[in-house]
Amino acid sequence: MPEREPDGSADEGSVVYIGAKPTMTYVFQVVAQLNAGMGPVVVKARGNAIGKAVDVAEVVRHRFLEGQVDVGPVRIDTERLVNREGREANVSSIAISLTRTGPPPSRPASAPAAPSPARR
Q1: Is 27:17 a contact under the CB 8 Å cutoff?
Q2: Structural domain includes residue 6
Q3: Which of 2, 9, 13, 87 has its CA 20 to 30 A from that of 95?
Q4: 16-74 pLDDT, tens per residue?
């Protein structure tokens, strides 16, 4: 589920953290956030999940919201983490900002209420 950045740096949008779930799970989260009118959606990943984060951004751009999404800025970084053996290790990270440029989908008019059952 998308989460807010703890330091408040993503006040205008949301963050989707990429992990072990299938790529399309994250694609649907990003598309839902963009369709809901959220500000920029930031796709974040570390280590081996970086490739999946790029795949998510590209699937959103080219298959679901073609011509309606701007990418950028893309931030790359190296974080120092303590690994399982207790040693410090460098881990690469990426944050890809996606912003919807096209109009959000129009919401359908509320459906008429179902007719009440006839009384006898």
Answers
A1: no
A2: no
A3: 87
A4: 999 999 999 999 999 999 999 878 999 999 999 999 999 999 999 999 999 899 998 99
Q: In the structure encoding, which two tokens stand for residue 101, read together? A: 């440029």
Distance of CA 108 to the CA centre of its chain: 24
Q: For residue 64, what are its two tokens? A: 């679901």
Q: Which amino acid is at 57?
A: A
**Tokens 């008429």 found at:** 112
Domain count, the chain: 1
Q: Work out the number of other CB atoms within 10 angstroms of the CB of residue 99.
A: 17
CATH number at residue 75: 3.30.110.20
Neighbours of 24 (CB within 10 A): 11
Condensed to tens digits (0 to 9), the pLDDT of residues 90-106 reads 999 999 999 999 777 76
User: Residue 39 domain-assigned?
Assistant: yes
Domain that holds residue 28: 14-100
Q: Per the domain annotation, does 25 fall within a domain?
A: yes
